[in-house]
Input
Amino acid sequence: MTVRKSATATTEGDSPEGPAPLGTALAGPENGQRGAPAAGGRVRSVALTIVSRYWLVLFLVIEVVTFSLMRRDTFMTSANLHAILLLQAVPLTAALALTLPLIVGEFDLTVGVVTTGSAVVIAGMMRRLPTGPGHCGGSAGGEVRRYVEGLLTARSK
Output
């Protein structure tokens, strides 16, 4: 094992090029070169990559399985699934509205206001109209509001 002294600290196991990446072993203490990944390092690295990317999906699966086993007669029913999907419609719409601005490197602060306004318009229209026209009217109201906000923003610059 090499020990290198620097102005800041003593570092064990580092090569002259800097610290070795996680999951790698040094080739030898005399030359300080990095070797191939350690025996279980590659598998561990792949597992950590999968968990770090898909932890939310994994948690959702664990949650659904747990509640399904605990409450078989109430949780895993079509009525409950329908209610869960209805409750997630507004956050899903907001997430989709934020996707394009985030891809181009911008962040749109008006998404929350427009989403809330559209949800209120949809709720008001669905009291008087069937579901389909209510959703279309609420979406159209949100688009008109976004258009007006865009015009005001462009004129103010």
